[in-house]
Amino acid sequence: MICPYLTFNGDCEQALKLYGEVLGAKVDMMMRYGEAPPEMPCAPEHKDRIMHVRFSIAGDVVMASDSPPEYYHGKPNGISVSLQIADPAEAERKFNALLEGGAITMPFGKTFWSKGFGMGVDRFGIPWMINSPADGYEA
Question: Which of these, 62, 99, 110, 125, could form a disulfide with 75 (CB 3.0-4.6 Å)?
């Protein structure tokens, strides 16, 4: 199984809230830095940040965390999270809600391979591709 691991710079919990509201993400387990054993100390200002979370979107596993500053690599480069949504109206609704406050890099619209496709970066810096496959074009 391949599952994306999203890293955030202190706003993982806000991203989870958005993904829950827009995509129906369900948290399976979550651990905060403050819950780590004493031999793994963390800065007091990080104790409420998310050390690790496992959640699912449409049955697929995604993991995420707030990276400590010394391990944060910045915004993802060269990779996107791709969602396949059968109903094009639902795909467009989720596309617009997910990217509100972010940046649309390719507006949602019909293509030769899809009933609707669009790309963008959410307000947390995560790149997304939303696709509603055309008949005969499976994701």
Answer: 125
- Residue 60 inside a domain? The answer is yes
The amino acid that residue 106 corresponds to is M
CATH number for 12: 3.10.180.10
Specify the amino acid at residue 62. Answer: V
Q: What is the pTM for the complete model shown?
A: 0.90
Which amino acid, 105?
T
Strand partners, 63: 5, 54
Alpha-carbon Rg for the chain, nearest whole angstrom, is 16
- Total of domains in the chain: 2
Question: Are 91 and 109 within 8 A, CB to CB?
Answer: no
Q: Considering only CA atoms, which of 88, 137, 138, 80 is closest in space to residue 109?
A: 88
Structure-token pair, residue 106: 């390719």
Residue 106 lies in a domain: yes
Residue 73 is assigned to a structural domain of this protein: no
Give which of 5, 6, 13 is closest to 46, Cα–Cα: 13
Domain containing 107 equals: 81-133
